[in-house]
Amino acid sequence: DAGVTQSPTHLIKTRGQHVTLRCSPISGHKSVSWYQQVLGQGPQFIFQYYEKEERGRGNFPDRFSARQFPNYSSELNVNALLLGDSALYLCASSFGTELRASYGYTFGSGTRLTVV
Amino acid sequence: AQTVTQSQPEMSVQEAETVTLSCTYDTSENNYYLFWYKQPPSRQMILVIRQEAYKQQNATENRFSVNFQKAAKSFSLKISDSQLGDTAMYFCAFMKRRVAQGAQKLVFGQGTRLTINP
Q1: Residue pair A51/A34 in contact by the 8 Å Cβ criterion
Q2: Contact assignment for B104 to A45 by CB distance below 8 Å
Q3: Cα distance from A45 to chain B (closest Cα, Å)?
Q4: A98, A99, A112, A113: which to substitute to probe chain B, counting the most B Cβ within 10 Å?
Q5: Interface contact B103-A57, CB threshold 8 A
Q6: In this structure, what are the phi and psi dihedrals at residue B59, rounded to the nearest 5 degrees?
Q7: Pairing of β B32-39 and β B88-96
Q8: What is the pLDDT of residue A97?
Q9: CA of A90 to nearest chain B CA: how many angstroms apart?
Q10: Nearest of A3, A86, A114, A98 to residue B45 by alpha carbon
Q11: B96: closest chain A residue by CA
Q12: What per-residue confidence (pLDDT) applies to B84?
């Protein structure tokens, strides 16, 4: 069974550009969360989606947006890229219920975004 | 808001030794979950062990065990008989048990880089 898959694995963008990151959850998982991990720090929560609706948003500017599709895959979009957006972006999936989430999320290997 | 603090940026031990990683957290919640995740160079976060705050018994998973002190808000990870494959970043994380509205999110510490030497 495939795990959480993210694409692309690496990406280099120029300041001011736009980027789209993609995530496919584990089959059967209906919740997808996005985290930003700046080098040397722990991941920071960006968004959670469940059944195609936004469940919550972290302390990130409006340049960050996301959506979830009917097949539960998700996209994270970042507009007007800044140098500080350079980070590893992690996607995590779960069934979506509280009990299932309490057993921890399953993470993908992330997309390494470099903004130059 | 919850915060998680890992005070040891780096640790290094010899293979087969026992090592303990520290984690403290701050919350006003009474019911929550605590986790230790491992992040090897492959970058994928791998769940090592979880603890339910409403259970007093410390969780164990093979060579991994925790010392959960709820009153002190402390959650340390002990790795026994350490192996070269244990080399990785280790993150302590907190999650509320019940969320009426909003996201059920993980709050991570800054991480501890653990190196197991041969």
Answers
A1: no
A2: no
A3: 7
A4: A98
A5: yes
A6: -75, 145
A7: antiparallel
A8: 64
A9: 8
A10: A3
A11: A102
A12: 97
- Contact yes or no for B95 and A102 at CB 8 A: yes
Residue B109's pLDDT band (boundaries 50, 70, 90)?
very high
Q: State the greatest distance between any 2 C-alpha atoms of chain B, in Å, as a whole number.
A: 48
Which residue type, as a one-letter code, is found at position B5? Answer: T
Inter-CA distances, A79 with A16, A20, A110, B75, Å: 7, 9, 19, 38
The answer to whether A42 and B91 are in contact (CB under 8 A) is yes
Cα A21 to chain centroid, rounded: 7
Give the whole-angstrom CA distance, residue B99 versus residue B64: 29
Cβ distance of B103 and A48 shorter than 8 Å: yes
A94 pLDDT tier (thresholds 50, 70, 90): confident
Is A102 a residue whose pLDDT tops 70? no
Q: Which residues of B touch A56 (CB under 8 A)?
A: 102-103, 105
- Residue A33 forms contact with B (CB below 8 Å): yes
Q: What does the longest C-alpha to C-alpha distance in chain A come to?
A: 42
B50: which 2 tokens?
Answer: 């979880």
